Amino acid sequence: MNLQKSASPLMDEQLAFAERVADIIKATYVEPPKACVETYGCQQNVSDSEHIKGMLLKMGYLLTENSEEADFVLFNTCAVREHAEARVYGNLGALKHLKRRRPGMIIAICGCMVQQQSVADRIKKSYPYVDILFGTHVTYRLPEFIYNLLMGKKRVFNIETDQKEIVEGGPVSRDGDLKGWLPIMYGCNNFCTYCIVPYVRGRERSRAPEEIIAEAREMVAMGFKEITLLGQNVNSYGKGEAHGVNFAKLIRMINDIEGDFKIRFMTSHPKDCTEELLDTMAECKKVCHQLHLPMQSGSNRILKIMNRHYDIERYLHLIDYAREKMPDITLTSDIIVGFPGETYDDFCETVKVIKRVGFTSLFTFIYSKREGTPAAIMEDPISREEKGKWFTELLKAQEEISRKGYGEMVGKTYRVLCDGEGRVPGRMSGRTDGNVVIEFEADASAYGRYFLVRVNELTNVLCGTIID
Ligand code: SF4
User: Fold this and answer.
1) What is the atom index within ligand 1 of the atom nearest the CA of 198?
2) Whose Cα sits closest to atom 8 in ligand 1?
3) How many CB atoms lie within 10 A of CB 368?
4) For ligand 1, which residues put their CB under 6 angstroms from it?
């Protein structure tokens, strides 16, 4: 666990609550109680959960991944897709029996899903065994919520949105020891018509560059070999802030930190992705040549209805510019199939563009309606079944493109960071600068080290041999 440098007064207050909770826990339990945090959704949530776990350790809990043995269970939820929400309700239902067997346990829920008033109301009414519910703006106040509950408050529900300031200085318990998340900003100003994020995460707020640099330095000192900068739209980092550091400048500052480590970032928005940023990626040795640039649709008509603020010509210009500056760059994207009003012709435009670009891989989704967003009330005449057919067609097209791209890697040599075991015994797995997985013969001592690996073949994964 590491404590960030400068705790803000609001965090000092919470650290004091954490101490009080720790005292109560010491006086109540013979063995330290256990806490289980289940995370749904994106990397931003994974990072938030790392901060929550840091605070739970500070309060005297031990962490467990098994909710059956936990004295405190927290679901950190996602609101992006209907399916994820349904899963949370199902898993919450299962906790009812657990609580009946262990009445002393605390059940808590937080994150984007519960930031929606309708969801908070439903949980309050239909899930009376949920003790604590808190939204994305007050995550840092968990110690206070637990304290209030332990002091006799029946239930704690808080989805306030007045907290605009970023509260720095809390403890972090990172899940990994090799690759780490580093949030640089929160929220989003873009209001894409299908997306719930601006409503549940609020407006963009960027962390001060000195806080980010201090945390990056600390991660490097701890031995992290890869730092991924996180934000809903990292390209607009620093906009409207007095410090005058934009995303490209921030990357240069992190690149200047001494040490053998690499920098990745996500997610980019094509509207704010600049040539300056692509030049910076090409010039900074520590920045991986990997760009995830969500396209969402290849049809200008649909991009306009999605409120994406770019057209496909600009998107392709960015792709061509990135390739010109970094011929080895790996490109990936997000695509939504079946957006309200999309026709088969629009869909064919998307397929045309993905063939033109040749993405290494794609994250594809069938449109999921989110109540409260403009798209939720748009006419959507295409059936789910029809959308499913388009989706399969897209997957097939991308599969061919990916396979061809991976096939072209055979015979070439790549520097990879070994980050885990391979799929068969005797093999370890690593990732290239472009985030492509290659497996090679090695034992566990290879973990955390860089190797030069020559790719020999493509089966269901790329396999190679260490040459240095
Ligand atoms: S850029 Fe658009 S899709 Fe991304 S988080 Fe913001 S509103 Fe949602």
Assistant:
1) 7
2) 195
3) 16
4) 188, 190-192, 195, 197-198, 232-233, 269
CA of 191 to the centre of ligand 1 (A): 6
CATH topology of domain 413-466: OB fold (Dihydrolipoamide Acetyltransferase, E2P) (2.40.50)
Inter-residue contact 215 to 4 (CB < 8 Å): yes
Q: What is the DSSP letter of 118?
A: H
pLDDT over 70, % of the chain: 99
Q: Return the number of other C-beta atoms located less than 10 Å from residue 98's C-beta.
A: 16
Q: Which residue has the higher pLDDT, 465 or 165?
A: 465
Max Cα-Cα span within the chain: 67
Architecture per CATH, 176-288: 2-Layer Sandwich (3.30)
Which stretch of DSSP H or E encloses residue 97? Answer: helix 82-101
Give CA–CA dist 63/49, Å, rounded.
12
> Does position 1 have pLDDT exceeding 50, yes or no?
no
Residue range(s) of every CATH 2.40.50 domain in the chain = 413-466
Encoded tokens for 465: 């041999």
Ligand 1: residue whose CA is nearest its atom 2: 192
What average pLDDT does range 276-288 have in this prediction? 98
Alpha-helical segments (H) within 284-343: 300-305, 312-325
Number of H helices, E strands in the chain: 13, 21
| CATH entry 3.30.750.200 includes domain 317-408 | yes
Whether 241 has a pLDDT exceeding 90, the answer reads: no
**pLDDT tens digits for 402-445?**
999 999 999 999 999 999 999 999 999 999 999 999 999 999 99
